[in-house]
Amino acid sequence: MAKIYALPEGMKVPDPDYSKPWTEIMAAEEKFLDELREVLRKRCPDKLVGAQVHTPRGDGHAVYMVAREKPLELVHVPIGDAWRADPVWERGLRLSDVKRMVVGRVGL
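Now predict its structure.
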């Protein structure tokens, strides 16, 4: 079962400035995701650390990043609408589920 954590202390999601072009907003999010990935990989060298996991929610999706494989730990990434997955999904997620989701998105 996965444990879900908030962002590491000191990490702040960029506030989207909708007066700017969408490409700038997305670039700021990507920079933030790269920084989070780097922080997590410094803490744990597991292969999937830093991989994003998405699950449908509302009119978008909830985003998580793998922080550790065993025991499975994910960090909730509150970008976009900051959706969280259903608590049942969070409570029952296994490493094998995450591997399938990551392979489906980017391959390994």
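The CA atoms of residues 41 and 49 lie 6 Å apart.
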